[in-house]
Amino acid sequence: MTDWLTPGLAHLWLPYTQMQTAPAPLPVVASEGVRLRLADGRELIDGISSWWTACHGYNHPHIRAAVERQLAVLPHVMFAGLVHEPAARLALRLAALLPGDLERVFFTESGSVAVEVALKMAIQYWRNKDRPEKKRIVHFRHGYHGDTFATMALCDPEEGMHALFAGSMPDQIMAELPSDEPMRRAFDLLLETHGERLAAVISEPLVQGAGGMKMHDAATLAFIAGACERHDVLLIADEIMTGFGRTGRMFACEEAGVVPDILCLSKALTGGTLPLAATVARRHVFDAFQSDDPAAALMHGPTYMANPLACAAANASLDLFESEPRLAQVAAIECALREELAPCRELGGVADVRVKGAIGAVELAGRIDLDALRRRFAELGVWVRPFGNVVYLMPPFVIAAEDLSTLAAAVRRVLTERAQQA
């Protein structure tokens, strides 16, 4: 029964949607493994992990049991002046997993806020070191870091959906990814020229997600890190999408041997169960906030930060990374996606095919009817939601080979039909 659907939609405001013209959303009533069950009884194989979160699939019994236990004991408590075991254990485990001395964890509830906290840390770091002029941020073309005002200012104005707000956001500096020698010289010159005013560079390591699934190599990331060190600028790694195995390593920075000064996590942190994010700082960043002066403290504190239920889910998710072969599963997904998406290169209207870890992206050329593509995928029994000019797959790591093949076959079929209709 969906007696809630029409009355409810009359009062809902949906994300990224022109609700006057968009097709009605599909009513989901249950989820299990890699499948979403709709109110009419159909099941869709989820090819995008609910915006890249459900790395263990849905309703994993270990995570569910951990949340149920926590719910019976301590669902929530404020995190100012009080602390609780799930957050303390999670911080300890994250510090042990992350590279280098990334060891101080500040919990929030969403990726955008985690990035905002990272920006505040970076700017106040320099202020606490008596260099208040260092407050600008360098970001990259095709980057995306969130939809709040501070994070919109770090997104590509063309790719990041935020051109409407131009002139209303802080003025930051956009650079090209230094992926070849001329671009590296230009990036180094930019940091040299503006270094006295720069607090940090922010980067999505290896894969720029919402900006189009643009991929770069570990050498590019390593160069960015080296340039930041040379020019006395902090490096913020936005691993909200790439963290927890998505690119093939537990954290994408590891592939380049890079330890950023500040690192942001969210999405798969709780296995797609509850909202939680973390901004993790290296020791020298944290030390700059230690003082007898109260004004030197980091003044930020979300109401639901370090929610015990979410922290319990995150601890259970980390248990699964320890006890189940998640990174091996990612490697198998990468091999399958390379093989099964390769035929798309031969289709008309396809500009590129890219694969990294458990991410497969087909970039399209020409006119793109996103609503029609999304509707067709649902008709084929898969949940694939293209955006911009990209059709992509980011399935749960636990997906069976036959289900992954079904997803890839649906991509090939839909894009073949598109090419034939052109």
Molecular structure report:
- The protein is an alpha/beta fold and 422 residues long.
- It has 2 domains: 5-56 and 325-421, Alpha-Beta Complex (Aspartate Aminotransferase, domain 1), CATH 3.90.1150; 61-323, 3-Layer(aba) Sandwich (Aspartate Aminotransferase, domain 2), CATH 3.40.640.
- It contains 13 helices and 16 strands.
- Strand 2 and strand 3 (43-46) form a beta hairpin.
- The longest helix is centred in the last third of the chain and has 21 residues, at 401-421.
- The two termini are 39 Å apart.
Span of the ends, CA to CA: 39 Å
Question: What are the secondary-structure elements, in order, as H or E?
Answer: HEEEHHHEHEHEHEEEHEEEHHHEEHEEH
By CATH, the topology of the largest domain is: Aspartate Aminotransferase, domain 2
Number of strands: 16
Please give the CATH class of the largest domain: Alpha Beta
Secondary-structure map:
Elements: H1 5-9, E1 28-32, E2 35-38, E3 43-46, H2 49-52, H3 61-73, H4 85-97, E4 102-108, H5 111-128, E5 136-140, H6 149-152, E6 173-175, H7 181-194, E7 198-203, E8 207-208, E9 214-215, H8 218-230, E10 234-238, E11 262-265, E12 277-282, H9 283-287, H10 308-323, H11 326-341, E13 350-356, E14 359-364, H12 370-379, E15 382-383, E16 390-393, H13 401-421
Parallel strand pairs: 3-15, 5-6, 5-7, 7-10, 10-11
Antiparallel strand pairs: 1-2, 2-3, 4-12, 8-9, 11-12, 13-14, 14-16
